[in-house]
Write a structure and sequence with these properties.
globular, single chain, alpha+beta
């Protein structure tokens, strides 16, 4: 049995992995999502050793609480050469979970063919997860179980249309509003004053790029 199947059969533990959330999880995969590199933070958080991760599909850490439609949209964007910021719940080897937000660099060869994805992942504020992301993802999972990914995607599209936001704009707004509220309560502001900060500027600041 390969590691991916072993992981799918693991017990789920409803406890978060304890990790240093100031650090960045990094990995490199080929164009098909096969892991070619994982940094020390990745190894520490997910609980797999380097040698266990190399050559494995990145979905070795996929958590069953994640709706398939989020990965569908993510991969559609990446395969079209577009960076995509997604909030993802991952499963560690222990069965515990950890939430991250993604950021990608896309590498191409001399023929402009995508050959690698370099991923950065950072922690997500718990308030954003509990109040907004978990309820949405649970709804999407319920729809997938009852009617399939097609209708899960239709629901997601309708949900975002009602808010007049793309998925990336929606999660940017959630994190930005959380930052502003935290800065207000702390009586200081490290959040940029320009509320119209564009997505590139916002995520560049978030990931220190």
């Amino acid at each position: 049995m390969n590691l991916e199947n072993q992981n799918n059969n693991r017990v789920i533990i409803d406890k978060e992995v304890a990790w240093d959330k100031t650090r960045v999880i990094m990995s490199k995969t080929n164009a098909f999502g096969i892991i070619e590199y994982a940094n020390e933070v990745f190894v520490d958080v997910c609980g797999y050793e380097d040698y266990e991760l190399m050559g494995q599909p990145h979905n070795i850490i996929r958590h069953p609480d994640m709706p398939k439609v989020i990965f569908k949209v993510l991969w559609e964007n990446l395969k079209n050469g577009k960076n995509f910021h997604a909030i993802v719940k991952n499963r560690a080897k222990s069965g515990r979970y950890y939430w991250v937000i993604t950021d990608f660099d896309i590498a191409r060869d001399e023929n402009d063919v995508i050959v690698n994805y370099f991923a950065r992942r950072q922690s997500v504020p718990q308030e954003v997860i509990a109040m907004h992301i978990e309820p949405l993802y649970k709804k999407l999972l319920q729809i997938e179980a009852a009617s399939g990914v097609e209708f899960s995607e239709k629901y997601l599209i309708g949900f975002l249309e009602e808010k007049n936001r793309s998925y990336v704009e929606y999660i940017k707004e959630l994190i930005y509003e959380h930052e502003k509220s935290q800065a207000k309560f702390a009586n200081y502001s490290e959040v940029e004053e320009d509320e119209h900060e564009d997505q590139r500027g916002f995520f560049g600041r978030l990931f220190g790029r």
